[in-house]
Amino acid sequence: MILKHFTDNDLYKFSVMLAIQKLYPWAYVKYAFTNRGGTQFPEGFAERMREEVASMANLKLTQEEKQFIKNKCYFFDPVFVDFLEGFRYKPEEVTITQNGGDLSVVIEGYWYRTVLWEVPLLAIISELYFRMTGAEPHDVEEKAITKAKALAGMKADYSEFGTRRRFSFDVEDKVIAALQANSGEYFKGTSNVYFAMKYNTIPIGTMPHEWFMFHGAVFGYRSANIRGLESWVDVYDGSLGIALTDTYTTDSFFNSFSLKQAKLFDGVRHDSGDPLTFADKAIKFYEQNRIDPTSKTLVFSDSLNLEAVKEIKEHVAGRIHDTYGIGTFLSNDVGAKALNIVIKLTDVKLHKKDANFLQAVKLSDVAGKHTGDQKEIDLSLRTLGLE
Predict the structure, then answer these.
(1) Helix (H) or strand (E) holding 130
(2) Own/partner pairs, 80-83, CB within 8 angstroms, 24+ separation
(3) Cα–Cα distance, 49 to 32 (Å, whole number)
(4) Is the same domain home to 19 and 147?
(5) H-helix or E-strand spanning residue 341
(6) What pLDDT sits at residue 366?
(7) Percent of the chain having pLDDT more than 70?
(8) Residue 213: which residues within 8 A CB-CB, separation 6 or more?
(9) What is the CATH number of the domain that holds 291?
(10) CA atoms within 13 A on the CB side of 25
(11) Would 385 be classed as within a structural domain?
(12) Does pTM top 0.90 for this prediction?
């Protein structure tokens, strides 16, 4: 059994789960697995994965996990925490098939439930692949200690974001222990709620792309960012205040980011495209709106390594507060090639009884990395004037 803890998941999946329950409790959706790297999975992989998914039906929130969430996640109301205690995964929501080396994973069900599947399934796929192909991790602690000391030497505030594409649970565990022990005040926490509890640190995360993808599909692409952010404020009243910018490209985001929202949100997150260009756009936006950029935070989370962090830090030094969410470079840099895999929202209904699904798409600041139905992508590009 690969997944052994209910909270072995990213915080933002729980935060968006609460927002869905409060605002869109009848929403019904589909997700699909995308194998961006073209990895060929070994024979019998789907069967083994189905066994892992079936075992997740037994996961439940422990009293220790519940108390940790109550203590650290002050933005979750007691009704939601009690709901998590009674929540159980339904394996029948996940369909797994295999054709040769090609793997298919589709998730379908009420959005408030299925939202939790993404990160655990990706973690299972990654760890199971390395188990079945006989890969062994090397220099886990040594590499993590070197990186931790280097990041501290740069005075870079950072968090570990590596659960979805980790080599294994054990590797991520050892990495976080090494980071915390060797970075001092610069290690700010982890996106993984279980490891945040184990190491008595802060669970980090706010909102996912799927939040804006849903709003774009249901309410229109021009209003997706505005409505997504306003809805987030309706739920969290200013908590969890880092806005994700690139669901429909950063330019589109800043065109719709209002003065009210800019003042209310603590900062914005970069997740695709050139980080230096993004930083300049964000700083210019704040300056044009008479907001002191040094009072805001930029979170960088796209394919980071030590060289990228150093370059970004030097570029923004003294201009704005910067922090870094570092994923695969920390949790899967142990000698094996990390899988390039994602699970994305593909189809949505505002209500299960609605006759037809609406297509959900994600654009990107990187050419060729748009996700979803091509006709719907073309429609969103035309609607936003991005052709």
Answers:
(1) helix 118-132
(2) 80/18, 80/21, 83/21
(3) 15
(4) no
(5) strand 341-349
(6) 86
(7) 100
(8) 224, 247, 344, 345, 348, 360, 361, 362
(9) 3.20.140.10
(10) 2
(11) no
(12) yes
